[in-house]
Amino acid sequence: MNVRPISGASVDARGRGAKGLLALILGVLLLAVTACGGGGSGSGSGSGSGDAKSGKGDSAAAETKQSEAIVSITPKDGAKSVDTSGALKVAATKGKLTEVQVKDAKGTAVEGKIAADGASWTPSTHLASGTAYTVHAIAKDSKGRTAAEDSGFTTLTPKNTFIGTFTPEDGSTVGVGMPFSLRFTRGITSPDDVEKAITIKTSPAVDVQGHWFGNDRLDFRPEHYWKEGTKVTVQLRLDGVEGRKGVYGKQNKTVSFTIGRNQVSVVDAKKHTMKVTQDGKTIRTIPVTTGKPGYDTWNGQMVISEKLAVTRMNGETVGYGGEYDIKDVPHASRLTDSGTFLHGNYWGGDAFGNYNASHGCVGLRDVKGGYDSGVPAAWFFNHSLIGDVVIVKNSHDATVAPDNGLNGWNMSWDKWTA
């Protein structure tokens, strides 16, 4: 078929005209398609109108699926120098918390508890100092839809710190009277916070309670002497504890010790004897000498806190002036911080079992140099443990103070736990 060009138009013009016509046709077709999909209100647009409603429905469904629960974490993400106590809080509104995980960089979890109403979570303990933590929390709204929040922060690095020195040593076997005793390098003004950071577990189980002597010493013991064979584990989690304003603990340590056989020795200052019992049976009665008049030995329950094969004893160190200075006292077992020892005596003559001649200590017959293992002082020294109990009775002095040495047994349980 031949098509004649429009009169007066060039070939190029005819080409542009054809393209224009094609564009016009395509435009009309496109308009028709748009009209079909536009969702007008006419009867011819029924299916198109349905497609539009479907789009709005997807958006509404997405909004419906989103949880209404809101999780908030304090401190804010990226916070630095965060306090180790009281600063960490997780809360939920319009929903309830179902899971909270707080971990340090090593993956160690911080224990905590979600409140009964699900509105909050708080840690069960303080945080460590100078430590980075991450928090992951999940909550659900009333329709069971979940919302999550994540955060990270770093706790403060303290300028002033404290630690606790302790007895007995880790891994030791001790006598039935041995308390776990801590002395802090700084005076403590928040004793409850410090005590909460210390846990004691025993096998078999026994109730163990702490008692403060002043603001720098904390001792733990059961109501009665330990049972033979008891295993004791102490966890010190003092790192991050604010013991006093601006002074934080810097110590995490686990200490374990075992209770040995039950040995209790009773010194009768009037009879000048010491009866040594193990597991309730007398194994030896030893002649002794105690404090002479004016230098009477303390009465009461005393615990061996230190054993020295040989030591120097100088009266000036305990307020007695220059009355004595013995450089080689053998087989010495410390009973008080004030200087009372149960020790070997090679200068006492016939005093043992007959009269009291010491300056307050309990003396047992010995030889100079302590080389004879058969003498009473050597025998007792070799059969004793740190933590063994020595009870002195019938002396003319008062009962030893509970904090003079490891001698808290001289305090009633009611006062100990008050």
Estimated structural class: alpha+beta
For CATH, the homologous superfamily of the largest domain is named as: L,D-transpeptidase catalytic domain-like
**Are there runs of 5+ residues with pLDDT below 50, and where?**
1-57
CATH architecture of the largest domain: Beta Barrel
Tell me which oligomeric state these chains represent: single chain
Shape: elongated
Strand order of the largest sheet: 22-21-20-28-23
Description:
The chain has 418 residues and is of the alpha+beta class. The chain is 16% helix and 38% strand. It is built from five helices and 28 strands. The strands form seven sheets. It has a five-stranded mixed beta sheet, with no helix packed on it. The model is unreliable at 1-57 (pLDDT under 50).
Brief overview, please?
16% of the residues lie in helices and 38% in strands. It has helices at 11-37, 46-65, 191-196, 376-382, 413-417; strands at 70-74, 79-82, 89-93, 96-104, 112-114, 120-123, 132-140, 146-155, 160-162, 164-167, 173-174, 180-184, 198-203, 208-213, 217-222, 231-237, 242-244, 247-249, 252-259, 263-268, 273-278, 281-287, 300-303, 306-314, 325-334, 341-345, 362-365, 389-393.
Observed structural traits:
single chain, four-stranded antiparallel β-sheet, Immunoglobulin-like, alpha+beta, 418 residues, L,D-transpeptidase catalytic domain-like, 3 domains, five-stranded mixed β-sheet, 16% helix, elongated, 28 strands
How does the SSE layout of this entry go?
Elements: H1 11-37, H2 46-65, E1 70-74, E2 79-82, E3 89-93, E4 96-104, E5 112-114, E6 120-123, E7 132-140, E8 146-155, E9 160-162, E10 164-167, E11 173-174, E12 180-184, H3 191-196, E13 198-203, E14 208-213, E15 217-222, E16 231-237, E17 242-244, E18 247-249, E19 252-259, E20 263-268, E21 273-278, E22 281-287, E23 300-303, E24 306-314, E25 325-334, E26 341-345, E27 362-365, H4 376-382, E28 389-393, H5 413-417
Parallel strand pairs: 2-8, 9-18, 11-19, 20-28, 26-27
Antiparallel strand pairs: 1-3, 3-6, 4-7, 5-6, 7-8, 10-12, 12-15, 13-16, 14-15, 16-19, 17-18, 20-21, 21-22, 23-28, 24-25, 25-26
